[in-house]
């Protein structure tokens, strides 16, 4: 299963790695930090995430180990075992033996440990839900990455981005409450069937609201099909009444559908799909659409055509 990697916590990784790198400057360089993912390890360095890797079991035991031309040291925080690795000469052995995690890095690593466990749970849950609800492969992953990219472009805080990313991953979770026959319908829907489909945001919001601390995420999921002119569902909210996270996910969700699952998707550039959304006045928040255009320009794909049928990330 592909690692989930919540993009909203990139800043937390950078902070933790920066503290550790500075703390170990007198011992070695090229610091890496690894954590367990099933039967393998996932890691990060100052440049980003590292490929999942299978390490010898001995590396996770207490003490210092030498492997692959690097020193390794295992430590545990809040039930998560971490592997710290640096490049250093053999003479650095004593320094590695006496090294202890600096107190100023502990808070960041405790937070990362919580997110690691959440990522493992959500990654498995999303795979199950994607199959059960007959959602298009890769849709949830692209929507949450694009939502975070738009939110970052608009200067939202880490806390706001975390709520938006979780809500984007869970935005269609309510579809698991719909019948297989209804989800399999490909043609025009009757008014009654449309009402049943539209109920997925109510169902999903109710499911999420059962989890303590997820009230805002439930509210964002409930409102991600609302339109700024009040023509959306389920409550017909207008611009100022709609949670900002919902406005972002509405744009990311519609853009992904338009560029991947419409008959004309493979024939049009991202710019052409964006222009169609911009012409639908009253449906999407103009400032969110403007941020989407800036993201596409920054990625250098505004004039490109989508790779339909893949699960590529943003």
Structure description:
It is elongated, with a radius of gyration of 22 Å. It has helices at 10-23, 93-98, 103-132, 139-153, 158-170, 180-184, 191-198, 200-209, 215-222, 244-260, 270-279, 286-299, and strands at residues 29-37, 40-45, 48-53, 64-67, 70-77, 80-87. It has two domains: 7-105; 133-299, Hypothetical protein af1432, CATH 1.10.3210.10. It contains twelve helices and six strands. The chain has a six-stranded antiparallel beta sheet with strand order 3-2-1-6-5-4. The chain is 48% helix and 13% strand. With 314 residues, it is of the alpha+beta class.
Give a nutshell description of this structure:
The chain is an alpha+beta fold. It is 48% helix and 13% strand.
Features:
314 residues, alpha+beta, Hypothetical protein af1432, 2 domains, six-stranded antiparallel sheet, 12 helices, elongated, disordered C terminus
Radius of gyration: 22 Å
Which word captures the global form? elongated
Question: Any idea what the CATH superfamily of the largest domain is called?
Answer: Hypothetical protein af1432
CATH topology heading of the largest domain: Hypothetical protein af1432
Q: Count every beta strand, where a strand is a DSSP E run of 2 or more residues.
A: 6
User: Regarding CATH, which class of the largest domain?
Assistant: Mainly Alpha
Number of domains: 2
Q: Strand arrangement, largest sheet?
A: 3-2-1-6-5-4
């Amino acid at each position: 299963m592909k690692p989930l990697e919540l993009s909203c916590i990139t800043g937390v990784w950078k902070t933790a790695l920066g503290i550790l790198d500075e703390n170990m400057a007198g011992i070695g360089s090229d610091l890496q930090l690894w954590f367990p993912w099933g039967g393998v390890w996932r890691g990060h360095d100052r440049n980003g995430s590292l490929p999942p890797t299978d390490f010898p079991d001995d590396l996770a035991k207490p003490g210092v180990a030498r492997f692959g031309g690097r020193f390794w040291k295992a430590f545990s925080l809040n039930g998560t075992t971490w592997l710290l690795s640096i490049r250093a000469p053999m003479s650095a052995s004593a320094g590695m033996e006496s090294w202890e995690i600096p107190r100023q890095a502990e808070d960041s690593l405790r937070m990362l440990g919580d997110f690691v466990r959440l990522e493992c749970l959500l990654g498995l849950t999303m795979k199950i839900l994607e199959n059960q609800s007959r959602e298009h492969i890769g849709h949830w992953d692209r929507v949450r990455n694009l939502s975070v990219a738009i939110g970052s472009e608009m200067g939202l805080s880490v806390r706001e981005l975390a709520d938006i990313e979780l809500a984007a991953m869970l935005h269609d979770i309510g579809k698991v409450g719909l019948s297989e026959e209804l989800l399999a319908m490909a043609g025009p829907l009757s008014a009654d069937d449309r009402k049943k489909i539209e109920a997925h945001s109510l169902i999903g919001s109710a499911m999420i609201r059962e989890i303590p601390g997820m009230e805002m995420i439930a509210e964002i999921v409930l409102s991600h099909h609302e339109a700024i002119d009040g023509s959306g569902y389920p409550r017909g909210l207008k611009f100022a009444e709609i949670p900002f996270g919902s406005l972002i996910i509405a744009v990311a969700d519609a853009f992904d559908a338009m560029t991947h699952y419409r008959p004309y998707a493979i024939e049009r550039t991202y710019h052409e799909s964006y222009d169609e959304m911009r012409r639908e006045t009253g449906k999407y928040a103009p400032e969110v659409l403007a941020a989407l255009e800036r993201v596409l320009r920054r990625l250098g794909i505004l004039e490109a055509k989508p790779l339909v049928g893949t699960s590529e990330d943003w």
